[in-house]
Write a structure and sequence with these properties.
It holds the Pfam family Acetyltransf_1. The protein is α+β, with helices and mostly antiparallel strands. It has 5 helices and 7 strands.
């Protein structure tokens, strides 16, 4: 184990790894987002979002997220297979609903997005990204993780369920400009081994 690694509990293979995103990763992150949205979320996202994709604007947004995150608790991780950027995860403190009390377990980190380019799916990249987010969140003092998933996205729900996550009872509806998008919130508690 490399003592300087930001993910001491993560162990990857020589061909697959996860690391913090670097400024030069922004174009690759935008590419993975575009391809994954078109391939896996074409029936969920509004057509206008997909039809008017602006690669330059998306790259600029991801560059800002990597170089100048809104808080120190925000971050972006990338999954690599060899030298290829094949997935990413963005995370940070959640926006808190005024009607919601703090979770009794302690602070929460939200997985804003976790995407693996479909050609690279089923190789463990999503699991490695999720484990690295959990390690990073735990190291920063979080006791819980959460993510919002489109209600009809059974593939992502199955992935999070297989990792020990469950819906926590919160639902929201987003105005997409076309049909409303209903999302369900999933969560898990972070525990060290042996707890």
């Amino acid at each position: 184990m490399d003592p300087t690694s930001p993910f001491p509990r993560f162990s990857g293979t020589a061909d697959a790894s996860v690391r913090r995103a670097r400024p030069g990763d922004a174009l690759g992150i935008a590419w993975v987002q575009q391809v994954t949205w078109r391939t896996a979320y074409g029936s969920v996202l509004p057509a206008e979002v997909l039809d008017h994709w602006d690669e330059e604007a998306a790259t600029a947004r991801w560059s800002t997220a990597v170089v100048a995150p809104p808080t120190p608790a925000h971050g972006v991780l990338v999954a690599l297979e060899g030298d290829a950027l094949v997935g990413f995860a963005a995370f940070g403190p959640p926006e808190v609903d005024p009607d919601e009390r703090s979770h009794p377990a302690g602070p929460t980190t939200e997985v804003a997005t976790l995407l693996v380019e479909p050609r690279w799916g089923r190789r463990g990249h999503g699991s490695r990204l999720l484990a690295a987010v959990a390690d990073t969140a735990r190291d920063s003092g979080a006791a819980r993780l959460q993510v919002w998933l489109p209600e009809q996205d059974r593939v992502s729900a199955g992935f999070f369920e297989s990792a020990g996550w469950a819906p926590d009872g919160w639902v929201r509806t987003l105005d997409t400009g076309e049909a409303p998008l209903r999302e369900v919130r999933w969560h898990t508690l972070l525990q060290e081994e042996g707890e």
